[in-house]
Design a protein that fits this description.
alpha/beta, three-stranded antiparallel β-sheet, 422 residues, eight-stranded mixed β-sheet, 14 helices
């Protein structure tokens, strides 16, 4: 029986042309984030199921690739349920591993700690275009900084990176979970129902404000509360950032802490005054973000011209405490690395400043002194900073050169046993 040549469903092979683009983007990302003081770390692909199932990963906890116990711990005869067979799983994001890492090494790390982590994650999701079961994530996080300096730095670092990758005219949508909760409380929703209300609110861009109203009423919420709630969004519609925040803050009064309002204002104003990339900050009271571990500011990269968002993040001040027993302020931003790569490939992005690519086609049969002479010439070109491919000349040289040209080799040289000028 022949072996299977295709990747496992939901996974993909990466061809050289895409790999070159990925390497280029990783280089830009790491260089830019280093300029902002972020340092690279790495965590294992496999994490304890107790950590992965800690009710902090939202819907992702239903998509874990679980790993069976090994050796003597795996006893199929006595196993009665799934937990008797599994004790770990592939990470579904980089935040849970980061927090475990920080809790484990807190005494060895600077305060605050600015971390950059890039690596594959796995989710047993339904595959589709641009969505795979294995994909790269790119996260920056600041742990130990309670002030909004963390949010400002994260947004500036991320947007500077996107600008250097050639993206412009995008938006950073921003909101605060405390604002969301204050609006829900003002409207009369029970606190235990907030998350469900937010899940419906998160669908506003798809079903519109009337669709949200209809859904909430069908779910059994009081019509007066629904009307009061949605009137807040109508009042802020079309208002610019600081004005929109003020309109909602004035309406809900004492339900919103003044610090939350001031925090949003300061982040938006500071980023607008110091940004280097071409983008807009946008206060969006409908922004929810699904992860239940967010406690304060939340943000998202919106690229409507490409049909959606390309990253997001927020503050999660309670998560570290689940490991350490004491809360540690934390905030992070994740770039949608795979989506960015897909957009750049679809746009036909050309890597700038690539070294000259030269191909040496060497006639078959050449060996000894003449072969060493040709390789020596290739070595000189490499020492001069050029990329040189040495390969034997194919029978169909025309087709071979066509393929090399498609791979970016503009200078193709033929080498024979006897030099043509001899």
């Amino acid at each position: 029986m022949a072996l299977i040549k295709k990747p496992v469903t939901g996974m993909k092979d990466i061809l050289p042309s895409e790999m070159q683009l990925r390497d280029y983007c990783i280089g830009i990302i790491k260089k830019t984030y280093a300029e902002f003081g972020f340092t690279s770390i790495e965590t294992p692909a496999v994490e304890s199921l107790a950590n992965l199932n800690s009710k902090q990963g939202g819907e992702n906890e239903k998509l874990i690739f679980k790993v069976m116990k090994r050796g003597e711990k795996l006893n199929l005869e006595t196993a009665k349920e799934e937990n008797d067979l599994t004790d770990s799983g592939l990470r579904y994001d980089l935040t849970v591993p980061l927090v475990r890492f920080y809790a484990n090494h807190a005494n060895e790390l600077p305060a605050p700690f600015k971390a950059l982590q890039m690596g594959n994650v796995w989710r047993a999701d339904k595959p589709q275009k641009g969505r795979y079961r294995q994909f790269m994530q790119c996260d920056i996080d600041i742990l130990g900084e309670a002030s909004n300096l963390a949010e400002i730095e994260l947004i500036l670092a991320t947007t500077t990176t996107l600008g250097r990758l050639g993206f412009k005219d995008f938006k950073i949508r921003i909101n605060d979970r405390r604002m969301l909760k204050a609006m829900a409380a003002y409207s009369g929703f029970p606190e235990e129902e907030y998350d469900n209300v937010f899940i419906t609110l998160d669908k506003m861009d798809k079903i519109g404000i009337d669709g949200v109203a209809e859904t909430l009423v069908k779910q059994g919420y009081d019509q007066a509360s629904v009307d009061k709630y949605l009137d807040l969004f109508k009042a802020a519609e079309g208002k610019q950032n600081l004005e929109g925040i003020k309109v909602i803050a004035d309406k809900i009064g004492g339900f919103l802490d003044a610090d939350t309002r001031d925090n949003l204002n300061e982040i938006i104003s500071s980023v607008d005054a110091t940004k280097t990339a071409q983008f807009e900050m946008e206060f969006d009271p409908t922004l929810v973000r699904g992860m239940s571990y967010y406690t304060g500011t939340i943000f998202e990269v919106a690229m409507p011209q490409y049909g959606g968002s390309c990253g997001g993040g927020g503050r999660y001040d309670k998560m570290v405490g689940k490991f350490l027993g004491q809360d540690t302020p934390a905030c992070g931003f994740s770039i949608g690395f795979e989506r960015i790569i897909m957009i750049m490939m679809d746009e036909g992005f050309k890597i700038p400043g690539e070294s000259d690519k030269i191909a040496f086609l060497i006639e078959k049969g050449i060996k000894g002194e003449r072969l060493a002479e040709i390789i020596s010439e290739a070595q000189k070109e490499r020492a001069a900073g050029k990329n040189v491919l040495t390969v034997r000349m194919a029978k169909n040289k025309k087709f071979q050169k066509q393929q090399l040209t498609e791979q970016g080799y503009e200078d193709i040289r033929d080498f024979y046993e006897k030099p043509l000028d001899a």
